Amino acid sequence: MFSRTHRNIAGLAVVLAVVCVLPFILRPYQLDFLIFMFINIILVVSYRFIAITGEFSLAHAVIMGVGAYASALLAALPISPWISMPLGGVAAAAIAYILSFPLFRMKGFYFLIGSFAAAEAIRLCWVQFIDPFGGFRGLRRIPVLEIDLGELLYIDLGAPVPYYFFALIVGLICLFVMYRIEHSRYGFVFHAVHHKDTLAQSVGVDVRRFRTIAFVTGGFFAGIAGAMVAHYVTAINPGLFGLKQMLFVLVWVLVGGMGHFAGPIIGVTVLSIIDESLRGLDELRPGFYGLVLIATVLFLPEGLVSLPRKVLQWSTWLWNRGGGTLVKRE
Amino acid sequence: MKANITRRKFMAATGGVAAGLTAFGATPSKLFADEKTVKIGFLAALTGDAAGWGLPGLYGVEIWAEQINAAGGLDMGGEKYKVEIISYDDEFDAVKATVGAKKLLFEDEVSIVLMLGITPVQAVKDFMTRNKMLTTTLVPTDISEDAPYLFAPVEVHPFYNVTAVDYIARNMPHIKTAAIATQNDELGLSSLATYRAAFEVAGIEIIEENLFGFEVTDFAPVVSKLIAANPDVITWDTAYPDYVNLLTEQAYLQGYKGQFVNCTLDQYEHIMSKTSKEFLEGFLWQFPDLDDPIMQGGGTHFDNAAAFYQTYNERYPGAWTAVSWEYAAALEMWRSAVSQAGTFDPPAVAEALRSLSPVPHAFGDAEWWGEDFFGVNSAALGKWPVVQMQNGKAVIVEMGDVRAWCDQHLDVLKKHFIELGVPLAG
């Protein structure tokens, strides 16, 4: 029969086929929802990329903002958004690299607080320096992406359907690269640095260097996510990359599950869908959202990614309890 | 017990449930088949920090719609339309606002979108222009030349703040010095620029200013510094409602005896319970209770203002704020434009709205204004009340002429906006 790899590839192909068909079925609002979900998936997977080295940063949303601001400012020069977007990622990586010097002198709780302070310093720069960052109001009229081949072809990527495919392709490339790195020798060292940093150090691993590599790489992808937001929404401000966004990233990662590459993706997908479907409840929505979070943390401490395994365990337990047959309600 | 469900029974039961659901689903459609509906979008913060300026407005809009529907519906071209309010919580977030705007326009097909302003409006602006989405904001500095479908039909923040200062200059000649504290954000800064201009024109010297950050939770030092300067009048500018509560309470605890002038005094009964009736006596601000006698006709344009206020307070006790009536007032003006245009089509209604002269503003006749400031005449500027606390109740003491003041002192106003780095247009 089919091997597990074959089954995985087939499953992935089905998922891809579905997501490629969706833009022709869904309405613009639903497409927008999916576009921002793809962007958030890049963000959370890049966050997990840093977290697998054992440090939880509170600067990730701001690093995302660095990518957004850098790309928007470069596009205003004007540099083509096709070039400014990757440069936004590079700028985010560069800022992450600079931050890594003071931050990786700290560990654990101190790193967490240090990263928060560094993030706030950057965010306050955006607020205080109206020129060039626009202050609280931020930047507007950020150009959208276009494919302009004159008479031959013109595609305005500001429209939902083209941007959906753009976000999907960029998202898949980012995920593929991060997946490959995590499953390379570098990735194994990242895990070693997390779980046994002293042991890793004793065999010659430069723990700080590897943490910096993860921090900078994660920062690059967060920057790309930020640039994608900037060139779609066409307006950004410091509030978009504040503590609230950072808390959402943490919640998505933790609820989805840190232990597996797919965990944060599941976290973003499930929680975003729940959040959106509860919109009709208006001010009661955060309460229901909170209940879902509490239930997940209580019953699925390893995150939603562990749900299939848990269901299997519960089914087996029920099966065994019923003496080999499933327990029936009388 | 052995399950006793045969295939036949299962099919019959399924058919029955399906038939029932079909009938259930069909009944309302049949009942409302002849009823025409116009949809109105409400895109503002219903949760989070800015919910205080979104949710009370949604309550108001829902009451307004109920009142219209109870009277048979909205009249357009001789036909009656039921009003349906569709809300989307933008959480005061640019991304959520972008998604919400698309939902409201493309999915719900609303005829107008009511927004709070600033960040969400900036994010949606290009979309609203491209798709001719008629939108209202409570913050006129959102307005710009490139947004012809964006109007500030009701609130002309922060310009109306000049009226209370002007009232002080004419009625309280002993006041010579002022002190200001507010949060350091766009709302606070634009308001600060306006207060600076108003005090300058009034000949009142500002002897202390304090722009505090969002990290401040203890307001005792902020207030101490202000009181130490011994000002004749203190203003909290356009501080967020929670800040106004805490700052006023601190001033009370620290024994301040002077005059207050402020943009808002939301839920003043609550502040009174924390301070005292005597302490708040004479407090000046800009937002009236709609049961004020001046709001019952006599040149104002808010139908059934007292009934609206009463219903609101019965249904949501203690929730009345500066914005409770404003979104509804924007709809009142939109209704006038719809009546003139004879259609709900947003571009036609926008054109009709722009052609209204005088503009039937909730506080009386106004005119579209702003070309010299934002580059386009899209803010309804006219009169705005000066409200004073008298014996524990908000009382309109004067209808100040904001337009006349702005026409006369526009240069001073612009100078202070530029000095503080606040953009004149969105």
In short:
The complex is a heterodimer of chains A (330) and B (426). By secondary structure, chain A is an all-alpha fold.
From the structure above, extract its key features:
A: 330 residues, ABC transporter involved in vitamin B12 uptake, BtuC, 2% strand, globular, B: 426 residues, alpha/beta, Rossmann fold, 2 domains, six-stranded mixed sheet, four-stranded parallel sheet, 14 helices, 43% helix, disordered N terminus
Walkthrough of the structure:
The complex is a heterodimer of chains A (330) and B (426). Chain A has one domain: ABC transporter involved in vitamin B12 uptake, BtuC (Orthogonal Bundle). In chain A, 71% of the residues lie in helices and 2% in strands. Chain A is built from 14 helices and 2 strands; from the N terminus they run ααααααββαααααααα. Chain A has helices at 4-21, 28-51, 60-75, 81-103, 108-128, 130-133, 160-182, 185-195, 197-202, 207-233, 243-256, 262-277, 285-299, 307-321; strands at residues 146-148, 154-156. In chain A, a hairpin with a 5-residue loop joins strand 1 (146-148) and strand 2. In chain A, 40% of the residues are buried. Chain B is an alpha/beta fold and 426 residues long. Chain B has helices spanning 7-31, 55-70, 94-107, 119-130, 161-171, 186-202, 220-228, 241-253, 268-274, 277-280, 305-315, 326-341, 346-355, 402-419, and strands at 36-44, 74-76, 79-89, 112-115, 135-136, 150-151, 177-183, 205-212, 233-235, 259-260, 284-285, 359-361, 364-369, 379-381, 383-390, 393-401. A 6-stranded mixed sheet of chain B has the order 2-3-1-4-5-6. In chain B, strands 8-7-9-10 form a 4-stranded parallel sheet, sandwiched between helices. In chain B, helix 6 crosses helix 14 (402-419). Chain B folds into 2 domains: 36-156 and 297-381, Rossmann fold, CATH 3.40.50.2300; 161-285 and 386-419, Rossmann fold. Chains A and B meet through helix 2 and helix 10 of A and strand 3, helix 3 and helix 4 of B.
